[in-house]
Amino acid sequence: MKHVIFIVVLCIINVYGRVAVDVHHDDINLVAGVKPLTKNESIIKTHIDIENVDNAVQGNLIHVNISIAKKPCVTKTLLENIADNDSDDNNEFEPCAPEVKIDNGTALILTPLIKEGKVKEARKSARVDSKLFLGFKSYSGFLTVNETYNSNLFFWFFPVANKPLNSTPWIIWLQGGPGASSLTGLFDEIGPFTVINETLKRNPYSWLSNHSLLFIDNPVGTGYSFTEHEDGFAKDMATYSQHLYTALKQFLQMFPELRPAPLFLAGESYAGKYVPAMAMEIHKRKDKIGSDINLEGLIIGNAYVDPDMISHLAWPFYYFGLLEKEQIEIAKPLIDSFQQAINANNSSEAKNKWNSLVTVLLFLSHQKHAYNFLEDELVVGRYVNFLRTTPVKRAIHVGDIKFGWVNMTVNVKMAPDFLSTTKPMFERLLEHYKVLAYCGQLDLMLPCVFTSENYRTWKWNGSEEFLNATRFPYIFNSKLAG
Ligand SMILES: *[C@@H]1O[C@H](CO)[C@@H](O)[C@H](O)[C@H]1NC(C)=O
Ligand SMILES: *[C@@H]1O[C@H](CO)[C@@H](O)[C@H](O)[C@H]1NC(C)=O
Ligand SMILES: *[C@@H]1O[C@H](CO)[C@@H](O)[C@H](O)[C@H]1NC(C)=O
Ligand SMILES: *[C@@H]1O[C@H](CO)[C@@H](O)[C@H](O)[C@H]1NC(C)=O
Ligand SMILES: *[C@@H]1O[C@H](CO)[C@@H](O)[C@H](O)[C@H]1NC(C)=O
Ligand SMILES: *[C@@H]1O[C@H](CO)[C@@H](O)[C@H](O)[C@H]1NC(C)=O
Ligand SMILES: *[C@@H]1O[C@H](CO)[C@@H](O)[C@H](O)[C@H]1NC(C)=O
Ligand SMILES: *[C@@H]1O[C@H](CO)[C@@H](O)[C@H](O)[C@H]1NC(C)=O
Ligand SMILES: *[C@@H]1O[C@H](CO)[C@@H](O)[C@H](O)[C@H]1NC(C)=O
Ligand SMILES: *[C@@H]1O[C@H](CO)[C@@H](O)[C@H](O)[C@H]1NC(C)=O
Ligand SMILES: *[C@@H]1O[C@H](CO)[C@@H](O)[C@H](O)[C@H]1NC(C)=O
Ligand SMILES: *[C@@H]1O[C@H](CO)[C@@H](O)[C@H](O)[C@H]1NC(C)=O
């Protein structure tokens, strides 16, 4: 059966890993240009200088604040040379703690072993000490996807327990962003454990209970994935889909028993591009010898598939009652220039305008983020400190590669991809694979209505049947679940 299923999840789903904008409410340059609506001081902040908003949000920051307050420190020699030793100003300096050289091991690059055919050895060295991870068996390491630039994708694989690997479905998880680590999916969404107060806790809802899970940090530079060359970052779909396919091929050399297992590619938000792009790479080689990968389906959540899904960004703020018409009117110049950039197919420009528009809408509606307007704080990235500890770094073979749950370099490099569409890919893939599209309906960035309306425009040999289908409530354990 080839069909799309829509599940509007009524419970609160935190849809992480998508790009929001940093909304330091007081930092936005407020300059006259647009007249305030009323004389009320609290609304006067609606003077918005479109140009300055652009400048204010350059870099397209993820909103959630996970930085750790740290006093600046100075080295001993520098401290000795500070001329004015009596000044109170020196209180802001602290001598740096002597640097401890803890050995965090080295990053495990598996590709050379795989190339030499030493797959057993590769597999053995990728093994993660399960004692540190509540006993869950797993493997991790790096797969080289471009040797010229020494670009490597990091993976962390959890085989299903107590079930045969070769027939149990397996899922590859790709986070959105672009530039958000798939370890967010592992620790905050579908993986077997989560970090609470720096301690691992079991996740009773993990998808691992019935599937093997493979998390890949993608594109290069995201999470623990890295490149050693400025030009190694992906700027387009051709590059990231090629990288993902190359990594998958190497991974399957290490775990050949997974080849016959039904494979599902899953992800949310920006992964609405990665998931079908990777699927197409597999599909293109479907009948070629040695490329037998049993792709069974695709799973996308609040997915960004097509520019049409984001072009009416402002309206949910109005319809959810977060903004009134006059406030939307304030953002009108930005809405128009965003639309123009989309019409001109100018990705970088559209991304800038989109950023600005999101910033303004969040600012006007006093929202801290755009992923669940019922929650003030989005708890995400709690796992990061845990991941940076020496025992964990050693256990998952990452050495001293820097980890950030969002890599802004990756995000910025991907700007030319912003307006790409994967709609034609889905239209082809739907004739061969199952597609599950779900959405959490409190998301303001890719609201259910815009994603669903776009799905309804897809043309494939089952689209008539799909449009004809009746929408049913999703009942789980006798309760409405979606
Ligand atoms: C402006 O609106 C705020 C919030 O509704 C209210 O607390 C404040 O008293 C108002 N100020 C004036 C000057 O009307
Ligand atoms: C982020 O956290 C740091 C340290 O706690 C704090 O100084 C800073 O003001 C915070 N930024 C925002 C935007 O909340
Ligand atoms: C400043 O104070 C430090 C420690 O109190 C001392 O070691 C250093 O010699 C002083 N430097 C100068 C320039 O007086
Ligand atoms: C090893 O990791 C720890 C914890 O992140 C860090 O403090 C230390 O500097 C690292 N060691 C080296 C040699 O970089
Ligand atoms: C590595 O990346 C560069 C730039 O994207 C590309 O020109 C080159 O063909 C890539 N090499 C391989 C082996 O994929
Ligand atoms: C985490 O620790 C804080 C402070 O010790 C405590 O207030 C909080 O309840 C803890 N959270 C959980 C989920 O255990
Ligand atoms: C796992 O699969 C079994 C049967 O295949 C099913 O009974 C069970 O409900 C599934 N568990 C979860 C958590 O989905
Ligand atoms: C982003 O990726 C680049 C390339 O791997 C790396 O040099 C940089 O440190 C990363 N930034 C963060 C915040 O992780
Ligand atoms: C937009 O531009 C990209 C290349 O920059 C091109 O591949 C794509 O076909 C264009 N889309 C439209 C709708 O013209
Ligand atoms: C996109 O728009 C920007 C700003 O208007 C302009 O500098 C740039 O040349 C445009 N790019 C393309 C490919 O038209
Ligand atoms: C759609 O096309 C595919 C491939 O040609 C075929 O296998 C499938 O049965 C068709 N589905 C329907 C509903 O006609
Ligand atoms: C669509 O629904 C109509 C009315 O129930 C039915 O006659 C028709 O065969 C359906 N078409 C498809 C493709 O299912």
TrEMBL record:
One of its GO terms (molecular function) is serine-type carboxypeptidase activity. InterPro entries: AB_hydrolase_fold, Peptidase_S10, Ser_caboxypep_ser_AS. This is Carboxypeptidase. GO terms for biological process: proteolysis. The keyword Magnesium does not apply. Keywords: Carboxypeptidase, Glycoprotein, Hydrolase, Protease, Signal. Residues 1-17 form the signal peptide.
